[in-house]
Amino acid sequence: MSTVKSHVEGTTLIMERLFKAPRQLVFEAFSTPAHLEKWWGPTGWDTKVYSFDFKPGGIWHYCMTCVDQNQGDFYGMESWGKSTFIDIDPYSRIVYTDAFSDADGHVNPDFPVMTITNEFLDTPKGTLFISRSEFPNEEALQQVVDMGAVEGFTSQLDRLEAIVTQ
């Protein structure tokens, strides 16, 4: 299994992972609701996509629910998210804002809104995926890191790898 490399540059969290799969397949896993529902969210969480309009200005609204009783107080918890796509370069890049929201799609002001740029690069060994999460300030970045964002996203990418390498 590949490992995730992560580091911070200013107010940007950068995470990289190599997938032994074609770039088109990895990109489609990020751009199709049926695929996202199979792997989006950390291990032990299920995701349901409520809206997904994959075009600049389009909205992606989803809910992750903890279904793993071994996760204690998290069991049964819902975490809603709302993203707005900014730029899409098929099979190469997806740029979007990402925010915590409620079931109605209202952004939660207690958590930062980040701008995420996901890049998909061909390599001789497969696809290099690079995700850059830009935060409004260092405090916002630290808040999300303290919530376990690196571990959670790493777990998500483990789930994705299991799908794209079948």
From TrEMBL:
Domain Activator of Hsp90 ATPase homologue 1/2-like C-terminal, chain residue ranges per copy: 20-164
Pfam family, one: AHSA1
Lineage: Bacteria, Bacillati, Bacillota, Bacilli, Bacillales
Classification via InterPro entries: ASHA1/2-like_C, START-like_dom_sf
Protein name per the record: SRPBCC domain-containing protein
Source organism per UniProt: Exiguobacterium marinum
Record CDD domains: SRPBCC_CalC_Aha1-like
Family of this protein: Belongs to the AHA1 family.
